[in-house]
Amino acid sequence: MNAGIIIIGDEILIGQVVDINSSWISREMNKIGFRTETVITVGDDGKSISDAIDRCLDVADVVFMTGGLGPTKDDITKKVICEKFGTELVLNEAVLANVAEMLGRRGIALTENNRGQALVPATATVINNAVGTAPGIMMERTTSRPFDFPSTNAQGATQGAALGNKLLFSMPGVPFEMRYLMEHEIIPLIKKHYNLKPVFHKTLLLTGIAESILAEKISDWEDSLAENLKLAYLPAYSSIRLRLSVYQPDDTTESYINAKVEELKRIVPENIIAYEDIKLEELVGKLLKDKLCTVATAESCTGGKVASLITSVSGSSEYYKGSVVSYCNEVKADVLGVSRADLEKYGAVSSTVAEQMASGVRRLLKTDYSVATTGIAGPTGGSDEKPVGTVWIAVATPTKVVSRKYVFGKDRSINIERFAASALSMLIVEMEKEC
Questions:
Q1: Sign of CA dihedral 210, 216, 221, 226
Q2: Domains in the chain, number
Q3: Which is it for the CA torsion 62, 64, 68, 69, positive or negative?
Q4: pLDDT tens digit string along 353-369?
Q5: Residues with Cβ within 8 Å of residue 385, at least 6 apart in sequence
Q6: Range of the domain at 10
């Protein structure tokens, strides 16, 4: 089954608001067997919305629209839907009661604009929004595949709806309202009335290898994959996800993919660090919890970014002790115990200092592991010997201290992201060596 997504709003086109709805919808629909064919972002313009609907209905079985259902004059989605499906807006008493009740709880009087949210296309199936004032709307394009399920028509009466192949769902653009409607109303409806096979995905997480080199190494293996198996390279800072996908799985799919993964393990055994779709910071936490161990961080150039990533994971207090952000040499020496002589001789951005930072914070916070970063994020501060983008990362374990030098680009914000991701990646590799 194919899905199309339309995101409506001038605020998205001008960059004032970031679209997070389309990625969420695509991800959740993929879980139940849908493949997103197209995502279209349009402004608050009737013709643009109308053209987007036509384009999506041409390629998709189900179309999801978000935005343009509020109480203001620029919310024109329902009017466009009426023109597109040859119907008119009518007052839905059930929606009006919901709007009035929600506003009343907040001490807000019902206005004509709010009443307008209770106007819905006469032929629509109305989807109740329990967390907002704008209802969801479902429209049908054909009736060649009728379904029988209880619904509420525009006048608020319960009926059996005859739905066809092409369905269009229009939802509020507010992310938490859209998600509520999808999770509690729309996805259960779709799962009940379509014979869907979930897409089979297998994701591997790799590190310590460039995408181009990886592609070259596994070229013959990739050529041997079955035609219905799609391989995707998903590079990120300091890691690459390889995703194997089958859109029409059968009883042999899982065993076939597992066999291909075993082949891959023999080609790049030192680079695979996880056999699931997991973030680096989540994998750090998983390994530490499995080992019943703790970790601390000492950061200079990353300014607390590594700590932020680790603590973004729920439950990280079980294994994360804390951090020392030693941005200046005095803190490196006075708090972490880095040798002043070594700071003078080798400089702050060096293997020696990184290793002493890692050892110092591990000793100071009494943890099993630690990771330290010291580098030049830029755009100033570099030299011929140590250009902008240079970072030394050190990991201290119960048995050793190791360090590694990386050199990235000149963009400060990107460098900080890369430094932090590389630190987590290096920590994972060293922990897995001791498992």
A1: positive
A2: 3
A3: positive
A4: 999 999 999 999 999 99
A5: none
A6: 2-193
